């Protein structure tokens, strides 16, 4: 006899910085919430933005990924974050957004899905991470979205050991703890930097992995570990690596967006801070204009952060029991996908788009190239579109408009120190 009561929410672990989300898979409303662990530790999301590949995007991407998970009412989010480069109030705003969008007469499960179990811990501290898993018990966390990482290309060339310890060793430790607690599903935040200087544009996933910077190499190493693990235990482990290109924009409400601690290291937030008067700079320094691109400046593939966040949900859902993407794989359940629009934009094109969105008269100065930058990183998103159903329809004008909407409504970001 079937019960009329909805099953409990699944919990997912979303790892951005040291954050955790616990998800129990993708299921209709009659299923229980999946608990998903999200790691939000360190400098969380990584992307290579134009001439400014040094990003701090947990606060932009991590919060938007959580929003997309909560919007389904199928996932219970557990976050772990050490707030190294993010603000706790971002999670409060995400939760409030989700609550405001609840339907009239929402069920207890729907309401529960809008609450975030937030844990303050660091992925480089195994004892802290294990304590979170112990709270939910063996098999209590359905899957992990692992976003946490240091991700500044230039900085990685100066302190490579720090990058290898944080991005590789901490990921290895996390996987060991997951294995101990029978949590064997991961969506991993990788990066377009794994391709180095690609021989083919747009870049397909079959391109050889040949990163040019220590940061990019940490992503190659982590992907390799996941691939090896899934081959070693094909009946237990399954994972998807998402090779991000360049997320931009903010939630259209203007309530959540990117707010890095200190001066932004990536292009679009820096332009937004300049326009709102938060950065004491009148001239933008552009690294090189002698690349083999239309205007000589680096070209990057920008996609709206909401489109990027939806890609995480699609990837997570494919790790469910009914997924077909591994049907033809006899040896391992591991795949990598590009998340991008498939259209490149140069640094100077981005500056002009932000000029239009903000009305600010940007000045720029061309200086020498920066080590680690590559001329063109434009995605071929065909595989993700075909197998995940991924789409990135929002254009650059919308990205800049939503970014400026966030920044103008929140000139001091989340207002925390």
Automatic annotation (TrEMBL):
It comes from the Eukaryota. It catalyses: UDP-alpha-D-glucose = UDP-alpha-D-galactose. InterPro entries: NAD(P)-bd_dom, NAD(P)-bd_dom_sf, UDP_G4E. Pathway: Carbohydrate metabolism; hexose metabolism; Carbohydrate metabolism; galactose metabolism. The keyword NAD applies. Residues 62-402 form the NAD(P)-binding domain. It holds the Pfam family GDP_Man_Dehyd. Keywords: Isomerase, NAD. Its cofactor is NAD(+). The keyword Zinc does not apply. NCBIfam families: galE. Mutarotase converts alpha-aldose to the beta-anomer. It is active on D-glucose, L-arabinose, D-xylose, D-galactose, maltose and lactose. In the N-terminal section; belongs to the NAD(P)-dependent epimerase/dehydratase family. In the C-terminal section; belongs to the aldose epimerase family. This is NAD(P)-binding domain-containing protein.
């Amino acid at each position: 006899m079937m019960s009329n009561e909805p099953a409990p929410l699944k919990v997912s672990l979303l790892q951005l910085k040291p954050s955790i989300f616990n998800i129990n898979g993708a299921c209709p409303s009659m299923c229980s919430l999946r608990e998903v662990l999200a790691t939000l530790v360190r400098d969380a999301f990584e992307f290579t933005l134009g001439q400014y590949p040094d990003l701090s995007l947990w606060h932009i991407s991590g919060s938007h990924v959580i929003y997309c998970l909560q919007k389904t009412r199928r996932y219970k989010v557990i976050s772990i974050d050490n707030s190294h480069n993010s603000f706790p109030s971002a999670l409060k705003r995400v939760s409030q957004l989700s609550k405001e969008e609840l339907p009239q007469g929402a069920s207890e499960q729907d309401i529960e899905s809008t609450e975030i179990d937030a844990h303050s811990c660091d992925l480089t501290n195994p004892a802290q991470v294990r304590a979170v898993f112990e709270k939910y018990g063996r098999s209590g966390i359905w899957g992990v979205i692992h976003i946490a990482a240091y991700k500044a290309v230039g900085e990685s060339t100066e302190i490579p050991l720090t990058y290898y310890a944080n991005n590789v060793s901490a990921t290895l430790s996390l996987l060991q703890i997951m294995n101990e607690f029978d949590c064997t599903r991961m969506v991993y935040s990788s990066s377009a930097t794994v391709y180095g200087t690609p021989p083919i544009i747009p870049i397909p996933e079959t391109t050889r992995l040949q990163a040019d910077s220590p940061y990019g190499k940490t992503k190659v190493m982590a992907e390799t570990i996941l691939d090896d693990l899934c081959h070693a235990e094909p009946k237990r482990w399954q994972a998807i690596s998402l090779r991000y290109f360049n997320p931009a924009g903010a939630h259209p409400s203007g309530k959540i967006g990117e707010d890095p601690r200190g001066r932004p290291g990536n292009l679009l937030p820096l332009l937004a801070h300049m326009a709102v008067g938060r950065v004491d700079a009148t001239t933008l320094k552009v690294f090189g204009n002698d690349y083999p691109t239309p205007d000589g400046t680096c070209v990057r593939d920008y996609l709206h952060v909401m489109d990027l966040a939806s890609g995480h949900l699609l990837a997570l859902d494919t790790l469910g029991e009914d997924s077909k993407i591994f049907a033809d794989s006899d040896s391992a359940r591991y795949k990598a996908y590009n998340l991008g629009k498939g259209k490149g934009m140069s640094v100077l094109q981005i500056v002009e788009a932000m000029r239009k969105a903000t009305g600010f008269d940007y000045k720029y100065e061309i200086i020498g190239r920066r080590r680690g930058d590559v001329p063109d990183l434009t995605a071929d998103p065909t595989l993700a579109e075909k197998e995940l159903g991924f789409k990135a329809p929002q254009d650059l004008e919308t990205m800049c408009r939503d970014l400026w909407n966030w920044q103008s409504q929140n000139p001091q970001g989340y207002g925390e120190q």
